[in-house]
Amino acid sequence: MAGRLLTYEEKDTWIHRLSGVTKLAFFLLWSFTGMLTYDTRVLAVMLVLSLIIFKTSRTEWKQVGTVFKFILLFLCLNLVAVYLFSPQEGTAVYGTSTVLVDMPGNYDLTLEQLFYEFNIMLKYLTVTPVVLMFIVTTNPSEFAASLNRIGISYNVGYAVAIALRYVPDVQSDFTKIKHAQEARGIEMSGKASVWERLKKMSMIIFPLIFSSMDRIDVVSNAMELRGFGKHKKRTWYKGKKLVRNDYLTLAFAAVFMIGSLWITFADGNRFYNPF
Fold first, then answer.
1. 3-state SS class at 267
2. Whole-angstrom distance, CA of residue 216 vs CA of residue 159
3. Would the keyword rRNA-binding turn up in this protein's UniProt record (predicted)?
4. Is 271 helix (H, G, I), strand (E, B) or coil?
5. SS3 readout for 18-84
6. What is the mean pLDDT of residues 144-172?
7. Cα separation of 64 and 177, whole Å?
8. Model pTM greater than 0.70?
C-alpha cells in the first residue's frame, strides 16, 4: 500500500536535487501563469512542458494514479457545471455562435462553448502534474528548512512540512475506511455507477475528518510538550542552499511567465480567438 501513497520518495534526479523553495516558487509562478491566461497556444505549451517535467521526475503512476483520477472526475463535473450554468459563455467570450447541436432553450451546443471549456480543461491539466511532482519530489524537512532560510518563520515552515507529511496519512485513513465499508457489503468499486460511488464516497468524509482531528490533537500536544515555538530561531538537520540549477530554474519560470503573459495580453484580451 505504501507504494500507492502520494508521498515523498528519495530519487536521484535533477528535480529532487532542487531546493524546496525553488520548487515552491516554480509551482507558484506556473500556477499564476495558468490562472491568468486563456491563450490556447500558451496552455498547450505549458501542458507539454508539465508532462515532460513530470516524466523526468521519475514519478510512478501507481503513486499518483488514484489522486489523478479524482482530479479528472472533479474536472469533468466542473465542465458539466459550466455548461449547465453558462451554456453560452463561449459565445459571449468569442463573439460568434457556431451551433453544432440544437438544444431546448438557451442550451444550444456551440463550437465556441466547446472551445471555451477545452481551455478550462487545459488550465487544470497544466497545473496538476506540477502539483503532484512538487509533493512527491520535495522532502518536507528540507522544505521547512529552506523556507526558514529565506526569512519565513520556522513555525510556518513546520506547518507546511507537517501538511506535506500528513498527505499519505490521510490517504491511508481513507483507504482503511473504504475497505471497512466494502467489507460491510457497500459496493464502492468500478462495478457501481459513478453517481453511486460519489454518494458512498461522501460517507467517508466525516469519519476521515474525525480521525484527522484526533491526529492533529496528538501532534500539537506532542509539539507543545517539547517546547516548540519557545525560541525565535532553531537549527535544522536538513537544509539546502540555492545552487546554479536552482537559479536557472527560477530564471526559466520567471521568463516563461513574462513571455506567456505578453503573448496572452498582446492584443488586449487574454482569450485566444480562432473564430
1. coil
2. 11
3. no
4. strand
5. CCHHHHHHHHHHHHHHHHHCECHHHHHHHHHHHHHHHHHCCCCHHHHHHHHHHHHHHHHHHHHHHHH
6. 72
7. 19
8. yes
